[in-house]
Amino acid sequence: AMAQAALGAAGLHFDELNKLRVLEPEAAQQTAQLREECRAFLDKIVEFQKIVGSLIELVDQLAKAAESEKMKAIGARNLLKSIAKQREAQEQQLQALIAEKKMQLERYRIEYETLCKIEADQNEFIDQFIFQK
């Protein structure tokens, strides 16, 4: 016991296997425990990094998919706009054509009325000519 105290004063200790150690057995045990806890903590950090990495990857994929859908929607909207413009242009062409045909119809109506009047005048002339004989 006295030898152990003298060695303890010199900073030397015996472990459970009676090997000479510089650290106290309790300090050595705490150091080993801390080392294990650190190793477990590092393992958890690595696992956490993997999870975060896969989460970031998933979010990236979702962002790309959303961007792709957005582009499709913009394309569809632009297509609809161009179709609407085409329809509008067609409608204007048809309105112009209708106006042109109405004017043509009015000219034909006036021409028809004029021809009817000429026919009536000629019939009257023929009737007078026949009655004179």
TrEMBL record:
Record protein name field: IFT20 protein
Is Coiled coil a UniProt keyword of this protein? yes
Recite the UniProt keywords alphabetically: Cell projection, Coiled coil
For this protein, the record's InterPro entries field holds: FT20
Mind naming one GO cellular-component term on file for this protein? Answer: cytoplasm
Coiled-coil blocks: 80-111
Q: Cite a single GO BP annotation.
A: cilium assembly
One protein family per Pfam: IFT20
Q: List where in the cell it is found.
A: Cell projection, Cilium
